[in-house]
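Field guide to reading this record: the first block holds the primary sequence, the second block holds the structure written as discrete tokens, and the final block holds curator observations. Each block starts with its own label. This record concerns GNAT family N-acetyltransferase, catalogued under organism Streptomyces sp. R08.

BLOCK 1 — SEQUENCE
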Amino acid sequence: MTVIARDLRPDVHADLDGFVAVRRLVLPFMLLSPESVAHEIAHAHPRSALRRLVAEEDGEIVGTAEVGIAYDSPEPGQGFINVYVHPQRTHRGAGSLLARTAEEHLAAHGATGFYAWVLDDPANRAFAEGFGYTASRSAHFLRLDLAHGTLPPLATPPLDVEIRPGSDFADDPRPVFELDAETMADEPSDIGVEFTDYADWLEGTWQHPLFSPELTSVVLVDGRPAAFSAARTDDAGRYGTVMTGTARAHRGRGLAKLAKNDSLHRARAAGFTEAFTGNDTGNGPMLAINKWFGYEICATEVRYVRELT
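BLOCK 2 — STRUCTURE
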């Protein structure tokens, strides 16, 4: 049986469905859809050198990879490679072929560092180490049962605080962009992020097919956005928090809790049954907030790094 690696064809439904099927098997706690994959390819920043690869065995998609340059990082040359193989199609060369193809692509675009997320189990870690990668930081995936769990009661905001849905900013999302940019800059990561391109953020975040402005909650202090919890949803009753943060000047007041609690309550009222999120293991404050809500760790991944000389 022959395994080949090639680019995903975003205009071919079978490719999109196959890509999503593999990813959902390996990462059931991450939200994606054929529409979201096609959108991300169509609206990729030119400097990202983004590619979505598939490994195909006798006409069946058995592996996937996403590869590109972290163009919004203040440190140039940082590339990312995330390889996932169908659990019943491992040890047939698909993962190795995808990894080699991805590395060649990044090297051709001047990358000097390769960063890969790997699920924390012996086989995956050994695979990364076999390619010369070394373990760096780690992160948790967390799950909350919205259908049967108990959320903290909604609290009355202080007099200077107001909570509004993200959809209220539909005519002008720039204040949400500015808040997202400030909070993302402080996220623990081995690849820094600087949001400076508003048009790119609109396409990649605000107009993303899974983004839900209706379930995103924005906390205003004296009429200005100070904290938010950004939500995505899919057609399987799943809700995900992709970012929760507070502007530096307003931290320590519990505003992130207010935003996330408001969003979670509205997600449950809208019929969503599962909530997912993710946190760097070094992000103690956010892990504590999610534990307070009742989230439980459902998986851990490790960032592996390979520096080119």
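BLOCK 3 — OBSERVATIONS
The radius of gyration is 20 Å.
Residues 144-300 form a domain with the Aminopeptidase fold (CATH 3.40.630.30).
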